[in-house]
Amino acid sequence: MKRIADNRSGSCPSRLELAGYQAGEADGERAATLARHLEQCPACRREIQFLEQRRGEFLSAHPPGQLLAELDRRSEVRPRRLVLQLAAAGLAAGLAAVLLIWARPRGSAVRTKGEFSLQVYLLRQGRVTRVKSGALFLPGDRIQFTCSSPAGGYLFLVSVDASGRIFNYNHQASSNSVRLAAGSDQVMEGSILLDDSHLAERVFAILSDHPLDFDQVRRAVERTWHRAATAEPDLESITRLDLPYSQDSFLLRKRAEKPPR
Amino acid sequence: MVARGDRNLGVTVMAAGGEDEASWREEVEDVYRRHAAFVYDHLLSLTRNETEAWDLTQEAFLRYLRYCLSGRRVDRPLGFLYRTATRLSWRAARRRRLEPLPLANPPELAESMDTRTSETRLALERLWPRLDARLRVVAKLRFIDRLNVAEVCEATGWSRGRVRRCLKKINKIAEETGLGEIFSPAGGHNQTPRVSYIMGGEDPPEKGERER
Q: Which chain B residues have a beta carbon less than 8 Å from that of A192?
């Protein structure tokens, strides 16, 4: 029986790879291999020409301005489109929040606008971005914290990793809380370079009305850790320490340079 | 586990929210200029509907922008966009469960493109009405884009067994239609080892992206 697929040349790159090459995305060595292949393969050369031609046609029909306008429109329209569902969900969430606050008079994992909060900024490949809790970090990443608080107080930064090890993240590992004024996005001095540990880690920011020392905070971490402890405490679910102060936390997930397959 | 430094990340920290988004928009525009045509044609071949293909193209770029803004790195934007577009088209097809509008001459099937696969292309055009959405995705990736099985798995998020079952079904339908055997289960050049363009140095799919 005839095999239609056998008409193809097995050594030819995929269309995807050709398109990547044509757009200048191929790596040095692979680009050289593809260039050699193209010298010998008229079919692939035709394909490259076709891709180039299509790119011109497409951009004249859909200039980039169309996309950027659409990106703006989608980010504005989406909330309006969902307004009814959000209203219903908001009502339910409000009731749930009331119950939650009533049941837990000392703080809650639910944070509202204007509350004390911790933000993390990441420096990777020369670019600084603000990242969300739970984002993946790589060895060599550098991070820095900022805090927002409606009122002044004393700030302590501490972290615990998945093996239960505790780290003092105060500037210059200060054993006492540092003074924090009221305001938003206040930069904490100094940055932290992540090493090649693959263990997830949760960073806690504690805002108290008086200075705390590292021993107090460490005991609170240990209490929380042991209280949560099944055999392996889950950093995803431990969002607060056993301390009666305003808090926020941030989960750092790690992975090696090459993602495991 | 960490090395501490007095070095700050710089003044960009305070402005990162706004300025960073602006710089990423520039990068998205650049990526759009280089890859949008390929992504759009890919989606057009899958959906056979120009409006839907354009809508999904924009959605793919929106996801790319969001992905970048979340601080994650994309080594090969085209691989990311191709994978995202493939999955978006599959989800759209599954959601509406409607037959796509017929399109007379999808760009990727144009005669001028590649005479080498003309027989395969014509065979697939004849098979197309008999393939369901899942088989169309696999057929497009495997026989038009010439991805190997591992790359098809990576682009779709489906298991190797599932992709192989799809290929066997396509083969069976081809036999019933009198078009011969498109896929050789024995391997041959279909299994040519090749570095995956999609996988190389690429971030894994977002949580919830993988579908069974």
A: 2-5
Chain B residues 11-50 with a CB less than 8 Å from chain A: 12-14, 16-17, 20, 23, 25, 28-29, 32-38, 40-41
Question: How many structural domains comprise chain B?
Answer: 2
Q: What predicted TM-score, i.e. pTM, was given to this entire model?
A: 0.54
Residue B54 in any domain: the answer is: yes
| B188 and chain A in contact, CB less than 8 A | yes
Query: Beta strands of A164-215 (E only): which ranges?
Result: 166-168, 178-180, 183-187, 191-194, 201-208
- Walking along chain A (261 residues) 10 residues at a time, the average pLDDT comes out as 39 87 84 90 88 90 85 57 52 57 44 74 75 83 84 88 84 82 78 80 90 88 76 74 88 67 43
Contacts of A55 in chain B (CB under 8 A): 33-34, 37-38
ipTM associated with this complex? 0.74
Mark whether B105 and B133 lie in a shared domain.
no
Residues B146, B117: Cα–Cα separation, whole Å = 10
| All domains of chain A in start order, with CATH | 13-84 (no CATH), 115-254 (2.20.130)
Answer whether B21's CB lies under 8 Å from B66's CB.
no
